Amino acid sequence: MSSISVLGEDEVSSFFESSPPLKNMEEIVHKLNGFIQLNSTGGRRIVCVTSGGTTVPLEQRCVRYIDNFSSGNRGAASTENFVKAGYAVIFLFRRGTCQPYCRSLPDDPFLECFQFPDNTNIRVHASHAEAVKMAVMDQQAAVAEARLLKLPFTTIYEYLQMLRLIATAMKDVGPCSMFYLAAAVSDFYVPWKSMVEHKIESGSGPLDIRLAQVPKMLSILRTNWAPKAFCISFKLETDSKILIEKATKALQKYKVHAVVANELSTRKEEVVVVSSSGNVVVRCNSEKPESIVEDNLIRLIVDRHSTYIKEFGT
Amino acid sequence: MSSISVLGEDEVSSFFESSPPLKNMEEIVHKLNGFIQLNSTGGRRIVCVTSGGTTVPLEQRCVRYIDNFSSGNRGAASTENFVKAGYAVIFLFRRGTCQPYCRSLPDDPFLECFQFPDNTNIRVHASHAEAVKMAVMDQQAAVAEARLLKLPFTTIYEYLQMLRLIATAMKDVGPCSMFYLAAAVSDFYVPWKSMVEHKIESGSGPLDIRLAQVPKMLSILRTNWAPKAFCISFKLETDSKILIEKATKALQKYKVHAVVANELSTRKEEVVVVSSSGNVVVRCNSEKPESIVEDNLIRLIVDRHSTYIKEFGT
Lengths: 314, 314
Fold this sequence. Notes:
The structure is a homodimer.
Chain A: H1 2-7, H2 9-18, H3 25-41, E1 46-51, E2 55-57, E3 64-68, H4 73-84, E4 88-94, H5 109-112, E5 114-115, E6 123-124, H6 129-144, E7 148-153, H7 156-169, E8 177-181, E9 188-189, E10 207-213, H8 217-225, E11 230-237, H9 240-254, E12 258-263, E13 270-275, E14 278-283, H10 293-312
Parallel strand pairs in A: 1-4, 1-8, 4-7, 8-11, 11-12
Antiparallel strand pairs in A: 2-3, 5-6, 9-10, 12-13, 13-14
């Protein structure tokens, strides 16, 4: 029984048992199985990229919730690079966050990108031509070729149930599968059963909230759900002094293959890949202005994955 | 001094003094003054529509925050109707929420609306032609004719500072100005100065958070910031049994001209306009499938505003 308590399986089971069930589970499973079968038959590697923050409702009929800041930019940029490197990507993303191939669009694309010069033909402003072409052509091509499957979530309950579905469906892909867990997952939540049904009244005085810890699913993912998959997790801190230490601890605790350590204020310029073979600093190419840190990060991760696949059979 | 304590002016001052200052205040003021001058010179009525939920950061270098659920659909639909009724609209909206003229677009417009048949010309799929035309032509026309000014916010600090700026800038518009406060504003927050700087560590055990009440700005808006403006506030509840009672209390307490009462589960079909002249139930037109509740709601509000303007001088 000792291994069970180490993994926290009891907590995990009770988390899932008390979660509100996914509304469209059959549709998700159907899409997933089709996508995985098509790609694994062709021998293609498959990565699940998670992206954006999860919400934690404070009321069952939810008006208020706790959220994690995450634009989804890392996950979107990484997805594009994985597709370019030949992978099929399951993009598990928070609704409303940054989408692959859409990072160069302005904040308000319908106000800024287009015009209707003669009431029938739409035209793209020259300044946004490349961005729109990428968002439409490259994205549609990736989806049409079954290289990209987009699955949205909002709450921590949806996220963890969908991650479990994906991991289970990917089991047979073995070492050719990867989890690249860039989503900002809530550490604390209000258990569904102890949550008030109605909107909390704003009567008088302060409001006290007690939040429980979300069980760490990473151990279960590694041990039970998808033990053969290559697994990358992320660690974000605002204090650079504790970042590498915390990433190293996460590497050991969850037995993932690498932890990408990033600090909030410099995360777009630099990350550190922490693994048992040492720490590697990854930056964008300073000579190329359009270069992003994910270009070099995904190159490194893909190399590591190749080594992992090669060594797996031996 | 008694009137000061009734209004809670002390709390309001200390809220603003401790708020992190707006980053682009000069730019906002410049845009606002231009927009208001242009429209008020022409004798046009001006409404400030607030839309979407405000966030409350839990850390100064914010990773986690509390948010209020709000799609922004009500504010966006109301904005379109106000423009149609001849108003100039200052749309104070939460970043990422529903935009005016964009409500009919699909969730993932760049994946679904367009195609590039020959690599140079973009085309809109017939099924989305009307939605895209509205998002581009109607929206651009409203902005170009200075009938729509869009100002984004994220946090409660940004929202309340911007609302004060707008109210102050609108003061001279007098009874021809309106506040239509559809945004879901946080009731509770962590005062900036008592907030931790770094990300809260997810060590062991539960997390306890104490939230203070956000001072009610509605009294100050009515009494100090824009006393001559016509003012509509909103009350959302999940429990229909307490809805009308709470809306009526808000009407009396904040001395607004009407409170739009809506229940979370039926808010798209029906609202109740609560005012000193009685309660009016407003629904969408059941014969017209494309009819929305805001069509009739704004018609009623505009009529009430006309009466208010007429009676103001007498």
